[in-house]
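Summary for the steering committee. One of the milestones for this cycle was to obtain a three-dimensional model of the protein with pyridoxal-5'-phosphate bound, which we needed before selecting residues for the alanine scan. The sequence and ligand used are listed below.
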Amino acid sequence: MSNLNIQKIRNDFPILSQQVYKKPLVYFDNGATTQKPQVVIDEELKIYTHENSNIHRGVHYLSEQLTQRYEDARKVVQKFINAPHDHEVIFTSGTTESINTIAFSFGEKYIHEGDEIIISTLEHHANIVPWQMLCERKNAVLKVIPVNEKGELLVGEYEKLISTKTKIVAVNHVSNALGTVNDVKRIIEIAHQYDIPVLIDGAQSVQHGKVDVQELDCDFFVFSGHKIYGPNGIGVLYGKEKWLNQMPPFMTGGEMIKKVTFEKTTFNELPFKFEAGTPNYVAAIGLAKAIDYIQNVGLENISTYEKELLDYATQKLEAIEGLKIVGTAKEKVSVISFNLENIHHYDAGMVIDKMGIAVRTGHHCAEPLMQRFNIEGTIRASFSFYNTKEEVDKLCDAISTVKQMFG
Ligand code: PLP
C-alpha cells in the first residue's frame, strides 16, 4: 500500500478541481500531457513578473541571475537522471526535437549507405519518422524489433537483427500506446557487445519511476517536460559526452558558436553546441521545479501508488463484457488501452468525454503498432498519482453507458 495523501496532492493541481459539462473533471490523458502543480505555474509567473531577461548574453543583473538559474536547472536534471556531467544535459523543446537532433547529427556523421538502424514496433512516430527519413537520405536500412501478442518486445528477434551493420538502436523505455515497460537494460547490453550506441526514448518512463542513465548505461536518453508535470516547450537530450563531442551541431545560430567569420565558424563546447538560439529558459527552470515537486512526493511512492491504480483498473475493466485490453505485458506502467466490441473508439471516447472523463482515442501516434494488432486505434486511459480508484469507477460507469447507447 502506498502512503500518499492523494487529496492533498490533488489540491496542488488547480485544474483538477474544475468541472467539465457540470461534472467533476476526471483526467485520464496523462500519457498525452500531465497537469501542472501550482508551484510550477507560480515559478513561471514569478520569472515573467520579476526576473525575465535573456540568458548567457548580458552582463547586467537580471541576465546574470537568470543564467545562473538556468544552469542550476540543468544540474537538477543531471542529478534527476544521474548523468555524470551537467554538460551532457542539453535542453531542447521536447522529446521530438531531442530525437530529431540525434537523428540528424549522429546520422550526418555515422550513417552511410547500407548501414542499419534498429527501432521497435512499439515506437511513437517521433522515434520512427526521423530514422526513416535518415535512412532515405543515406540509403540506410531500418530494421524493426517485433512484439508478441501481449505487446512485449521479442528480445530473441532483436538479437537476430543486430549485426556489425547496425549503427544505432533507438527504442522507447515505455510504450505510450500500451504501457509496456521494455527491458532496455538488456537491449543496451546486447547492443554494447557490438559497440553500438543506444537511444532510449524516456518520454513515458521518467514520470513513473526512477531512471538512472549510468545504471542503464544508455548512450542517449530523451524526455519531455510537459509529460513530467513541467511546462510545455522544454525537453531533455542526455548524451554521453564521448558521442556528443564527436557529433556535429544540428541547429546553428547564436550561442552555439565559438567564433564566426564569413570564412569559417567554430563551435562552442557542450552543452551550448546543441542549444542554438535563445533557449526556453523559463520552461527549463519550471521543469526543475516540477522535478523537485515529484521528488518530494517520491518516485517510489509514485510507482507504488500508480501500480495499485493500474491493478485496480485492470481488474475492473477486464470484468466488463466485450471489453478487450490491448497490451497485457507483464511489466507495465499505469496505462490501459482497450476496445469495446462493435463500438468505434471515437464514439466511445465522445460519450465518455460527456461524463467529464478525458481519455485518449485513436492510434496514439503509433500507427505501425496498431497495424500489428490489426486495429485502427484504442481508447487509452493513462493514470497519474493524482488519480483515484473512485475515478476509475466513474470510467467503468461511463463504459456501461456507452454500451447501453451503442449496444
Ligand atoms: N515518444 C513517446 C514514447 C511519446 O509518448 C511521445 C508523446 O506522446 C513522444 C515521443 C513525443 O513527445 P513530444 O510530443 O513531447 O515531443
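Key point for the committee: Residues 257 and 337 are 46 Å apart (CA to CA).
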